[in-house]
Amino acid sequence: MVGGGEEELLGVAGNPETDTEMLREMAARCGNRAVRAALARNPSTPISDLQALWRRDPGAILENPLVFLWEFTRPGLAREMIPKDCQFMLYQHLLVQDEFVPRPDLIDCEWVAWHLANDVRKLKFRYPLHVVVRDDTLKIRMALLKLCVRNVKKATALAARFPQDAIEVLAADSRSEVREALSAAIAEGWLTPEPMDSEFLIRMARELISKSMGNLEIAASIARWPVLNATLIERLAMQASEGLLVILAGHPKASPSFQARMASHPYEQVRARVASVTPVEELIERLARDPNPLVRAGLASSPHLTPEIQRALYANRDSGIILGLVKNPITLPELLEAISKMPNLAVVGHLRGNPNTPKHVLKSLELVCPMPVVGAL
């Protein structure tokens, strides 16, 4: 290996006329960062060594004349010669520059989008995920919002946290596909602003609604945002489909007046949704008398039922109502005991899981229908 001080080593490492075997030996043995940077930029460094060097110093790809010779020789050749993992490292390097400049001549966008969607964690993304927002390519943004943040939530049980300005950029995107994906990612709990600010999200909801009037997918997603206020719920309901009204009718921020209107809606699923959440005593009493069993089944799952209403619902003996009651943790022990004697073993699992089921009922259930042994054939 060549000897001498750092200046001499740098001269040898950066000289295109240096013997390739010497460059290979330097790449294998020299740990000096400056020397390795010079090797990564030398077009005479053997390609296999260049690739190893570029994985640690992707910016060198942009400064090595060999890369430009490839592209000059044949458009697309540079992408073929630069390994895919080096392309991904280069992509990350570009994302954190003062100005992001995409390089489709060097980076396969399809491949980057695929890995963002499928295994970004395996690729050890070096920077906060929100920097990807700097790339306005449709395929990249859709991969980020529809799959990447979902996979982060699945792997960590925590939502991906984006700065508010990154979410603002996505909300301002002129393409409806991006706004739909953003609205859905927030609704699903895959994405949240950092810091979490209800007023900020309400403002984003207003902007998305204004930009996307008539877009049912965006409206349905925003209807599931937990931070809505009564005004936005009313606005979404103005031209809502029955399916969207079902979502809005059960929103915890819906006003009592809105719930009262939904309790009289002709579509039974809207009434059932109101029934399952409203704390308004007058509405509960009215919905308990609703002729549709689906509505009363919805009411049976409500956390606001009085003992009298519970008994009135049970007296009907409708299977949907019984199922709602047996799943409801506030159902009276006496009713759960009565349900346990009904000839319907489909509720046994729910009885076992209900905190109000009396102990003697649980013992009798064990005799009639023992718990299955894990691993039994």
Structural description of this entry:
This protein has helices at residues 6-13, 20-29, 33-40, 47-56, 65-73, 77-81, 84-95, 109-118, 138-156, 164-171, 176-187, 198-211, 216-222, 230-237, 242-249, 256-262, 268-277, 281-288, 293-300, 307-314, 319-327, 333-340, 348-353, 359-368, and strands spanning 160-163, 191-194. It is 59% helix and 2% strand. The protein is elongated and about 95 Å long. 35% of the residues are buried. Residues 373-377 have low confidence and may be disordered. The longest helix is centred in the middle third of the chain and has 19 residues, at 138-156. The chain has 377 residues and is mainly alpha-helical. It is built from 24 helices and two strands. A two-stranded parallel ribbon has the order 1-2.
Can you give me a brief rundown of this structure?
With 377 residues, the protein is mainly alpha-helical. It has 24 helices and two strands.
Number of helices: 24
Which regions have little confidence, pLDDT < 50, spanning 5+ residues? Answer: 373-377
Overall spatial form: elongated
Oligomeric state of the chains in view: single chain
Summary keywords:
377 residues; mainly alpha; 2 strands; elongated; disordered C terminus
Topology record:
Elements: H1 6-13, H2 20-29, H3 33-40, H4 47-56, H5 65-73, H6 77-81, H7 84-95, H8 109-118, H9 138-156, E1 160-163, H10 164-171, H11 176-187, E2 191-194, H12 198-211, H13 216-222, H14 230-237, H15 242-249, H16 256-262, H17 268-277, H18 281-288, H19 293-300, H20 307-314, H21 319-327, H22 333-340, H23 348-353, H24 359-368
